[in-house]
TrEMBL record, chain A:
<feature type="transmembrane region" description="Helical">
    <location>
        <begin position="173"/>
        <end position="192"/>
    </location>
</feature>
<feature type="transmembrane region" description="Helical">
    <location>
        <begin position="7"/>
        <end position="27"/>
    </location>
</feature>
<feature type="transmembrane region" description="Helical">
    <location>
        <begin position="90"/>
        <end position="108"/>
    </location>
</feature>
<comment type="similarity">
    <text>Belongs to the cytochrome c oxidase subunit 3 family.</text>
</comment>
<keyword id="KW-1133">Transmembrane helix</keyword>
<keyword id="KW-0812">Transmembrane</keyword>
<dbReference type="Pfam" id="PF00510">
    <property type="entry name" value="COX3"/>
</dbReference>
<feature type="transmembrane region" description="Helical">
    <location>
        <begin position="128"/>
        <end position="152"/>
    </location>
</feature>
<dbReference type="GO" id="GO:0019646">
    <property type="term" value="P:aerobic electron transport chain"/>
</dbReference>
<feature type="domain" description="Heme-copper oxidase subunit III family profile">
    <location>
        <begin position="1"/>
        <end position="193"/>
    </location>
</feature>
<protein>
    <recommendedName>
        <fullName>cytochrome-c oxidase</fullName>
        <ecNumber>7.1.1.9</ecNumber>
    </recommendedName>
</protein>
<feature type="transmembrane region" description="Helical">
    <location>
        <begin position="47"/>
        <end position="69"/>
    </location>
</feature>
<dbReference type="InterPro" id="IPR000298">
    <property type="entry name" value="Cyt_c_oxidase-like_su3"/>
</dbReference>
<keyword id="KW-0472">Membrane</keyword>
<dbReference type="GO" id="GO:0004129">
    <property type="term" value="F:cytochrome-c oxidase activity"/>
</dbReference>
<dbReference type="InterPro" id="IPR024791">
    <property type="entry name" value="Cyt_c/ubiquinol_Oxase_su3"/>
</dbReference>
<keyword id="KW-1278">Translocase</keyword>
Length: 193, 154
């Protein structure tokens, strides 16, 4: 029941990002190639690729956490260094940290771009860039908050039941969705020049 | 195989000869929309010479339908046939447990109050948003931990 609701909501979120992509492509068509070439040359590609890799890998760790949750493995069986014995909590904490690193990386990138003179107010390219990546960043932050709630209810629960497992599963759906949207944004913004 | 509760033990039914794969009809209903929207999108792109807004929106509508179809397909492979999948199924065979529901809860009301104050803040002054966010956070924590504490603690 919860899963169905999450998927239906995520499909509507897809249409929200459709609007974002439409803004971006419209600007591309209207502003012309000069604005484009000038602004995109200021992007720091190695940094962004590293940041993207962190987000994609966080989806992998999240899925391993889901597998643990589906087998009702709440917490680790061995020591913290024994990765194979990790439960849902350890994997989700790692995913949370990776997501937080991604957000921190985005903030660093924004600071660099503002330093270069691209802001949401003084450049049309800046407007669409900060709108699309900014709304994605807000979604990532929302996912991080969701992870905190998943971890919180899992720590509170003495017995790990389907209630906690379902929460972990639907949060992973959302996280994968945000990850896929980022991959699409990444290719559109950073490669499709 | 957790959390895919399609029913309790009393919902188990012996599939008849005409039983379709689980969630077959639902998957087809959403899956059929994918080629439709792709086709419409291609026609739109050709006719408008790639007008960005409509092209992106129509092509991602295929994504919208595809997301739901893929979920139904993946879920259908994990679960047993339901009474709904059997044309000879009866209403009674669908009786049983459907999931965990709150008998009643005041927390959504708190959450809604927080959202209302938050949006009031956009109109009145940004400092009001802070109050709305705090009320909303209290509502959210209350709602999500309702079944983890007090008499529901497990």
């Amino acid at each position: 029941m919860t899963q169905v609701g999450t998927i239906v909501w995520l499909s509507s979120e897809l249409m929200f990002f459709a609007g974002m992509f439409a803004i971006y492509f419209t600007h591309r068509a209207v502003a012309g190639p000069e604005v484009w070439a000038e602004s995109t040359s200021k992007l720091n590609m190695p940094f962004v690729i590293t940041n993207t890799a962190i987000l994609v890998l966080s989806s992998v760790t999240c899925q391993i956490g889901v597998n643990a949750a589906e087998h009702l493995r709440q917490r680790r069986t061995g020591s913290l260094l024994d990765v194979r014995g990790w439960g849902m909590q350890e994997w989700y904490t790692l995913t949370f940290l990776m997501g937080a690193v991604f957000v921190a990386g985005q903030v660093t990138e924004y600071a660099e771009l503002v330093h270069e003179g691209i802001t949401i107010a003084n450049s049309t390219w800046g407007t669409v860039f900060f709108l699309t990546t900014g709304f994605h960043g807000l979604h990532v932050i929302g996912g991080l908050i969701a992870f905190l709630f998943v971890l919180g209810s899992s720590f509170v629960a003495g017995r790990f039941t389907h209630l906690e497992a379902t929460r972990a599963v639907v949060t992973s759906y959302y996280w994968h969705f945000v990850d896929v949207v980022w991959i699409a944004l990444f290719f559109v913004i950073y490669f499709l020049r | 195989m957790t959390a895919q509760h399609t029913g309790g033990p009393d919902r188990h039914v012996e599939p008849s000869r005409r039983t379709r794969p689980p969630l077959f009809v639902e998957t087809v209903v959403f899956g059929a929309l994918v080629p439709f929207f792709i086709l419409v999108g291609v026609v739109y792109i050709v006719l408008t010479d790639f007008e960005p807004v409509g092209s992106v929106a129509i092509l991602l509508l295929a994504g919208l339908a595809g997301l739901v179809a893929f979920f139904l397909f993946a879920t259908g492979r994990r679960i047993d046939a339901r009474p709904e999948d059997d044309p000879l199924g009866t209403v009674e065979s669908a009786a049983g447990e459907y999931g965990e529901f709150s008998p009643h809860s005041w927390w959504p009301f708190v959450l809604a109050c927080g959202a209302a104050v938050l949006f009031l803040g956009v109109a009145v002054g940004w400092w009001v948003c802070v109050i709305g966010a705090v009320v909303g956070l209290i509502g959210l924590v209350g709602l999500l931990f309702e079944h983890s504490r007090g008499q529901h603690a497990h």
